[in-house]
Predict the 3D structure of the following.
Amino acid sequence: MASNTMSRIALARPVVSLALCALAACGGGGGGSTPTAPPSDLSYDIGSARLLVLVDAPANAPTVTGRVETWEVHPPLPEGLDLDAGSGLISGRPSAISGTRTYTVSAANSLGSTSCELELAVHGPAHFAYVTNREDDTLSIYAADARSGALSFAGYSSAAGESAPAATAMRPDGRFLYVANEGDGLSSATISVHSVASADGQLAPAALGTVGVGPCAMAFSAAGDRLYVTSAGSDEVQAFAVAESDGALTPIAVPVAAGDAPIDLALDLEGRSLWVIDAGSGSLTTFSIDAGSGALQAFAAEEQLDGVPSCIRVAGRDTQRVLVAFADSDRLRAYTVDAESGELIQPVEYATGLSASRLELHPNGRFAYVIGQDSDTIAILSIDPATGALARVGQAAVTTIATELRFDPAGQYA
């Protein structure tokens, strides 16, 4: 990020509110058994609404004077929304994006009808971004516009136990945000757990866990039921079980030694292996993950990398590849993951043109992005889906020294 007080970013998967513009105050409807006059004065609780795809719309109730026998709407409501034939209530979950449009709802009986107009639009899912501020031990909350990706400030959050927040991770279901706090850097640190409000992205403290000295990277299992944390100050990696209901952390066994100053980690997509790089000795360690408990066990001897690694990521699906970027050179080393044993084999190195502070992958798995050390440039590399070969295809300039890059889950914005 541009400010040196913002060190880590987490993006929430679709956890977004409806932006609603309420018009006339309205209520129920109905009348006697036999109409004595046509219905009149029809209105709805919500006259104009921006809805979100795959998010339940608020129930929209009508108010009308007189007895109603039939309800109709023209044109048909956006896909996924329904007009109740008996009450006129509009509800449902939009299933497709649609532009702003005016819909006319009519309430009728044998003596006549009345109508009113509703303005509805269905947008793609928006997201929230969370940025750590080390100077005042807070988190900044930004809302991402569903159409443009632009960020707008939505508030601050802080919690007891948060001191020098260093890393963030969002549980895959978007319900909880985890913040690793370095504290004084000399003693055991904490991980604070925040629940994420689906309506507006605001955070509420949910739990607090203890971790080793100097936590600097976290990674979730694909199911979100386990969290792995590296602690550079105590040279270890810790596995936690994650409670589904409140996100609380329970240590799995004891921390496992992980080289000298482990700074980053990555899990394979099947949850069988975990890889850790350390900056002190410049090594890569492979751990096996117990399928039942999630406990870690060193799988092979540390591999010396002949350099200072800065970041590690896993790319590919049918054939997984582990990518390691270096802080002291423009090398990017790619390993193939043996499908049977989980071993790293066939290392190949590529030139990125930049010594790397960060490495990130596009959600579609077809591109890798290298942020240069103390640089305002990001190198862009393509990843061949068949062979895994990388090739530099361009670069992007930013307005200041870049330290972090994250994508929204759809890969539209960074």
Q: What stands out?
A: The CA atoms of residues 33 and 329 lie 83 Å apart. DSSP finds no helices and 34 strands in the chain. Confidence is low (pLDDT under 50) at residues 1-7, 13-31. The radius of gyration is 26 Å.
